[in-house]
Amino acid sequence: MHIFSRYFLLLLFSIFFVLMGQITLQYIPVRTDAAFLQIKQDYIHITPWLIAFFIHVFTSMFVLAAGFTQFSAGILKRYKTIHRTIGKCYVVIILFISGPASFIMALLANGGITSRIAFTSLSLLWMYSTAKAWQTAKAGQYALHRNWMYRSYALTLSAITLRGWKWLLIALFHLRPLDTYKIVAWMGFVPNLLVAEWIIRKRLQKKNIIPVELQLSDTLVAEKFIAD
Fold first, then answer.
1. Cα(33)–Cα(1) distance, rounded to whole angstroms?
2. The model's pTM
3. Is the dihedral of CA 163, 167, 168, 174 positive or negative?
4. In degrees to the nearest 10, what's the CA dihedral of 152, 156, 160, 163?
5. Alpha carbon distances (Å) from 190 to 90, 186, 228
6. Can you give the pLDDT at residue 210?
7. Per-residue pLDDT tens over the stretch 113-157
């Protein structure tokens, strides 16, 4: 069953990855009247926003693929150098290229203040969780590193889940596009984070591991007890 679910998730990811690729190809060659940009004509004259948009579009495919490989036990065991190299590229692109670009885009997101708060929160959490994944890896705290990578990649997957929720809501409830956008701005990443936290807790329970944060607090309590 575990193998079946793994291959099912791989198939599901592959399907959505291809769909994301088709969306990206709509902007090649670079044009300002394609797809999503058709409803952003009031903003295409804002150079920082337009640059941020194309950066985000053209880097999203790489971070989706790169992040996916980071959870491959086979690559980690047999090709550690490749694992680390791809991981470094993933971190650098999110922290210094795609993450800042998504933040700029969030400031002018469709749907008003609620959508802008959602996408701004998403971009900041994305960069923060990725930075923590990098920090814990550098410190050799690999259990914590994996947990932060779950959170980071859950937010990376919002590029896919946002569109999945949008298609589902429109198909089921026939909502207006703007109303749908206000909803999926939050649904695109909040459920992802909840699933990531569930996976982390499940792994800890399965391995009977006490999180480092709890270990530290227990140590402090013990030290205080001895001192008293």
1. 46
2. 0.83
3. positive
4. 100
5. 21, 6, 44
6. 53
7. 999 999 999 999 999 999 999 999 999 999 999 999 999 999 999
Q: In the Cβ-directed half-sphere of 167, how many Cα atoms lie within 13 Å? A: 6
211 preceded by a cis bond (ω within 30 of 0):
no
Would you state the structure tokens that stand for residue 188, as one six-digit string? 């695109």
d(CA 81, CA 166): 38
Strands (E), the chain: none
Residue appearing with tokens 């792994």: 203
Cα distance between residue 164 and residue 201, in whole Å? 26
110 φ/ψ angles, rounded to the nearest 5 degrees: -65, 155
* Residue corresponding to tokens 């399907």: 15
- The answer to whether 141 and 95 have CB atoms below 8 angstroms apart is no
Tokens describing residue 180 = 């749908």
- Record the tokens describing residue 91, joined without a space: 């971190």
Are 204 and 211 in contact by the 8 Å Cβ rule? The answer is yes
